Amino acid sequence: xxxxxxxxxxxxxKTISEAVQVVKDLxxxxxxxxxxxxxxxxxxxxxxxxxxxxxDSNINLGAQDLFWETKGAFTGEISPSMIKDAGCSYxxxxxxxxxxxxxxxxxxxxxxIKAAFLAGLTPVVCIGETLKERENNxxxxxxxxxxxxxxxxxxxxxxxxxxxxxxxxxxxxxGKTATPDQAQEVHSFIRKIYGKIYKAAxxxxxxxxxxxxxxxxxxxxxxxxDIDGGLVGGASLDAETFAKLVKYSK
Length: 250
Ligand code: PEP
Known about the structure:
Elements: E1 5-9, H1 16-29, E2 37-41, H2 47-54, E3 59-63, H3 80-85, E4 90-93, H4 96-102, H5 106-118, E5 122-127, H6 131-135, H7 139-150, H8 156-159, E6 163-166, H9 180-198, H10 201-204, E7 206-210, H11 218-222, E8 229-232, H12 239-246
Helix pairs in contact: 1-2, 1-12, 5-7, 7-9
Bound molecules: phosphoenolpyruvate.
């Protein structure tokens, strides 16, 4: 059985003191939850402070990006080992906002995934189509390309550990959610193509849905057989709301 994972992406929000307050409240609100894995991804600047609160708790820590080199003259970048050192066990890779605004490509995504695994971090690899691509009926083609280029050449021992987040770009931060059926259709397609490459690892692969997930729609999404969790932006910024998501009714 795949353990559900509910992950919060705080994006470029919260100062250190704001982050500390939210995570203290969240820790109290989700105390005792063991049937769902919890992950929060604050901005880099708040990682250490948040780690001091969540270490030894049921909340995992992740970064929102990394650079694939181990060290050197790469001004402004953060290495996998720095992220690990800050207390992270996960890292988001290839979020659509990074693809859209910062030139992330399937090739850079691939390098980052490999670097994450080598450093002992679990990558949460984001893929998804734009509204235009969905309207042009090329969703599956886009997903297959992002998936095959992004997730190529992963050593087999890591293949089942990766997490994939299907995030239709038109559903991120817009209040428009894919219907559970629309999401399930893409999730099962992802599992099928993963199985062609990595065989049995596909059954262990956790595939999260992301795009305006909130306490009102999470349960219906989670009923689908290939939806193993959520990647949540806006609704993860408030401790009470995010705790409701983590404790969705099963
Ligand atoms: C996200 O940032 O990955 C996301 C899905 O955002 P939101 O939940 O706000 O749509």
